# Entry
Amino acid sequence: MIAARHISKSFPGVLANQDVSFDVSAGEVHSLLGENGAGKSTLAAILTGLYQPDAGHVELNGARVALKSPRHGLALGIGMVHQHFRLVSQFTVAENISLGDRKQNWILSTKKVEDAVREIGERYGLPVDPRARISELTVGEQQRVEIIKTLYRGAQILLLDEPTSVLTPQEVTTLFDSVRTLASEGKSVIFISHKLGEVMDISDRVTVMRDGKVVGNTAVADTSREELARMMVGRDVDLSAIRATKPAGAPLLEVRGLTAKSARSHVSNASIVVKAGEIVGIAGVSGNGQRALAEGIAGLTPLIDGHVTICGTDVTSKGSIAARKAGLSYVPEDRNGTGLAPSLSISENMLLTEDLPFLVNHKSAVAKAEEAITTYSIKTPGASTATRMLSGGNVQKVLLARELGHDPQVLIVSSPTWGLDVGAVEFVRSKLNELRSQGRAILLISEDLDEVRALSDRIYVIFEGKIVMECPGEGADVTTLGLAMAGASA
Amino acid sequence: MEIPLKRRALAVVAGVTAVLLAACSSSSSSSTAAEEAAPAVEKLKVAFVYIGVPGDAGWTYMHDQGRLEMEAALGDQIETTAVENVPEGPAGKKTFEDLARQGYKLIFGTSFGYMDPMLEVAAAYPDVKFMHATGYKTAPNMGTYFGAAEEARFLAGMIAASVSKSGRLGYVAAFPIPEVVRGINAFELGAQAINPKATTKVVWTSTWYDPTIESKAAQSLLNAGADVLAQHQDSPATGQAAEEVGARWLSYNSNMQSLAPKAWAGGPGWDWGPFYIAQAKAVIDGTWKSEQYYGNMKDGMVKLFGPAEDVPADAAAAVKAAQDAFIAGTAAPFDGPILDQAGKTQVAQGATAPMDALMSMQYFVKGVQGTIAK
Amino acid sequence: MTQESVLILTLAGAIGTGTPLVFAAIGGVISERAGVINLGMEGMMLIGAVTTFLVVNKTGSPLLGFIAGGIAGALLALIHATLAISLRANQIVCGLALTIFGTGLASFIGKPIEGAGLEKSFSKLKIPFLSDIPAVGPVLFKQDGLVYFSWFVALLASLYLNRTRTGLSLRAVGENPATADAMGLSVVRMRYAHVIIGGLLAGFGGSYVILRIVPAWSQAGTTNGIGWIALALVVFASWRPLRVIGGAYLFGVALQANFALQAKGITVIPAEFLAMLPYLLTVVILVVLTANRRTRGAGAPAALGLPFVRDER
# Structure
């Protein structure tokens, strides 16, 4: 139905796509798999008309087309659902769908649009109230609106860009059902993802990209997770579950009845224990109080109520320095910002949490940074490079190198692998596992349920600021966890 | 890309502002030409400091008319400038200092609030003559000037009563200061001279020029039954409101007949020209001395515009007679007996209110409806 | 004099007072709904006022004067649009600069007409039958043509914003320009058009002051800050054109309440306090209205004041 033929596209300094070809037929769910920076997004942009290829061309139903703009692409039936939704949150669903629609009369008749939304919703299993405001909808529902929007415009080919990154497991299941219905109705779905499990689950065929090139194209039935991972990364990777091999020791982090507020996050009456040699996962959809919990423990936000004990020292409301002295390290989600000062160099950032003498010895700091660059294989022009110039994975490595340099007894990591490519994910995971074997206590806060399940010895589920569930990591059931994350009382 | 763009925008904003400032300053001072032509005799430099702009068609406008008359009369003997929109109080002081430093030898300040700053600057520049309108403080080189507007106000009251059907007059008042109170009382006394039962209802706007507010004040008087309005502010909004409903109007300051031709029945006003000319001449001749000048209809500083043509002939004749009596000095607006609102005698039969009583007047005469805020 | 009651006269008068605010504030609503704050409104009103005066006295046509006043306001708004949209200058700064510039320019071109009178204007138009309705008739239907026009403008603006395709696009541009851009709408073109329409309406507001409230020109005194009240009204009316009408007339009533009380001889409250009452009352009532969840509007456009930069990589 749609095909890319020998497409190349370069940006200053980057060859984003190099002789890329692939075919998607009608009724097929075709995944584009690859790490960040593999060239998936560029290819998607070319297929939708946002970019024009330097060489090669796009074929639609066998005929060569030159897509001038996304609007042009959509007119030809190619629609894209972006990772960041293109919705006006103050508008209703119907208004969003009418926006920029030239078929509409000058005098709007939302009635027609509302009927169409309902009809499309029923047909493809995408139920949504056309009169609801976007701001009142869940993220999953908003995504539905995006899909309906492209379908309403007559899309025959849908590109979904990392569509599951914002969804709960239940929402993922619903989305996949809709995707299958769409395919069964003869539409083509291009599913862009770096998550192996989902790709295996939903696709008919997979095209794997690495460094701007297609490195594999296969039917899902003929391949395995391991093989896909190898294609993606270019070597063997192990992302299987790892648990503690030794029984856990004494509690190093004890949180009792913690109530705190931070930015737009709040947590109430949370009690958590993390023992030596244990990774404890906090699962939950983003924005359910994770940040307040982490910052409350780390002493970055004052506690409204509750107690925090680190390695036997009571650090309740004593501030971040006390918590640090008691043996805590915190790797926040917001790396360049809370974690690092983006315009400072790597070596300067390494110094930030040190007890510094009045005069800073830059030489030794640089030496230390260079050591970290080697041990953590940080890709950077040098120790004096500002951290905002680094890629996500390398920023995370700098942060980890600094925090682990203190040899913490207790480590809080928040979404440690978010946005990292598979290779970096593997590195971070092995590092966390290494710390666990050394008898440290690790609190892993992550929205990525797979990650939480793969690493944690015990799992807490957080929902609307409350710990709503606790279970062992081994054999934790996705459905049960997912329901708890969505607030359904178990 | 973004930073230079912003800079560019800022530069444009700055440019626009500069152009406007240039426009403002060029409009705010108009010096007579031929400054370069070296005169044989040194010209007297005369400065006028205005609270507002001549465009108010009112108070400042009339002063500026006076300035122009002076230029026309004295030609190249003098050179004048006018500084507009000068705030009262300490902020105004700098303007007076600057003018004195620039060699202006005669400086007129036309607002009450200039009094103290002028006094300070006068002490520092003894060779500069200062004249302050509406004030009461003097120095060897600083005098005051004002005029008996009450004479014209009285006549306006007579006109008002003669064109009123109901005898209910309205007065759109500015601020409760003696000057305004005096005007209201004179107006009511004049009205009573024609119709002893005439009353004047007063509302205060706390403005000198705000058309929106003054038109509302006028409307509320009209709604309350007044059929003739007088005003103390500079804007003709009161006239517009009266014209709108077919009521009559007595303007103030300048001849405002053209602004509401059907409503206009007359109005008190000023002619500062003769006084300004005399002052400049006195400085040139070296005969100037500090005084508290109080002009009137006799010397022409105070004027009555009108009455309008449709004012009944007998009333017009009565107005003329009263005006003649004021000029002749055989009568004054505040001749007794005058009772205040409470019925207390303020000026006895056969007496006339003395100057200091006029200058500090803080009561309404009988027939005025309203109160003076303390 | 008519035999109408004071209340009816007060309400009828409030409509006249509110009309410049209706024009200007709806202009503000339209501009702000597109995401551009217009702090130059006072300047645009003054330019509108002086232009109207000049054109009326030149041509003898109040209608031409009114139109010209609007166009003058629109031209000034074009400068604002260029600075704020194309050059992405700070909207607050260039809006303020424009008020200062507009005031200066207006007094510059108004120099020759200082003290002169307006030669011709509109008068009231009784609408047959409707004006005979007791109470409502004399309040609403014995006004001048421009008042009726202002209602038409408000209604049109409301329908335009809420019921048309372009109105929807306009709101999207003000709420989320990136999305609007992604949907193929030209954010820049939409913003230009609506800032200019906003200026046109502010110019109309200034025209109305000259034509119907004060028939003479006096620099800043003519509007004396109405532009700022209109700007506040935009906020308190929750960016809704029809609510603007209510707010503007409320202000008119409150302004008159001060003098009605004085005229009635009620002087317990000092006049100076009463003088600030209209502002206070209008703000309080509208805030209460806005605080109420049921009557609250959509609130400020999310992208208000933010220049639009397309996110390219």
About this structure: The radius of gyration of chain A is 24 Å.
